[in-house]
Specification:
By secondary structure, the chain is α+β, with helices and mostly antiparallel strands. It has one domain: Pnp Oxidase, Chain A. The chain has 4 helices and 8 strands, in the order E-H-E-E-E-E-H-E-E-H-E-H. Strands 1, 2, 3, 4, 5, 6, 7 and 8 form an 8-stranded antiparallel sheet that branches.
């Protein structure tokens, strides 16, 4: 039923490119730490190479993904087919790029502009796999929501910086954020 991928080939890249939503999951090293799983959308995922991907991290209410990556570098991306033939794909890897990284500006050019850009998460993949997805329901894509962009735009750069200092400096497990 499932397949292991050595790399993202053209067929898998085409399928990934059709998905309107994906999830990222991370966890701290603490045995009783909180596992985090976040939905992503808004055309924020890119394939950089056969074993390298990136996504645009937008300002949000938490900083778990970045904090966990800073601590241990582990991440998994999960894509589910909500339309078309059923399939689930998981891409395992690690790494993070923050606005202070030399490559940040070049990576941002790969994505649509958003007022709340906080970081670009870049992952070197160590494993890819698929599974059937037979129990994933079918949904019809209508459109991306613009609420996050409107909120970030209303904050302005100073407001976003203040918000990030308040809400994104520490994770729920008290790990350093961005």
């Amino acid at each position: 039923m499932g397949k292991i991928y050595d790399c993202i080939d053209d067929k898998l890249a085409a399928w990934l490119g059709q998905q309107k939503m994906f999830f990222v999951a991370t966890a701290p090293l603490l045995a009783d730490g909180l596992v985090n799983c976040s939905p992503k959308g808004m055309d924020t995922f890119r394939i950089l190479g056969p074993n390298e991907v990136a996504y645009l991290d937008l300002t949000g209410s938490g900083i778990e993904t970045a904090a966990h990556l800073r601590e241990n570098g582990r991440i998994v991306f999960m894509f589910c087919a909500f339309a078309g033939p059923p399939m689930i794909v998981r891409l395992h890897g690690g790494g993070v790029i923050t606005p202070q990284h030399d490559d940040f500006s070049n990576l941002c050019r790969l994505f649509p502009e958003h007022p709340g850009i906080r970081a670009v998460v870049k992952a070197q993949l160590t494993r890819g796999s698929d599974s059937c997805g037979y129990s994933v329901p079918r949904y019809e894509y209508l459109e991306d929501r613009d609420m996050l962009d409107r909120w970030a735009d209303s904050q302005g750069s100073e407001g976003l910086a203040t918000y990030r200092r308040k809400k994104n400096s520490r994770s729920l497990d008290d790990l350093p954020g961005i």
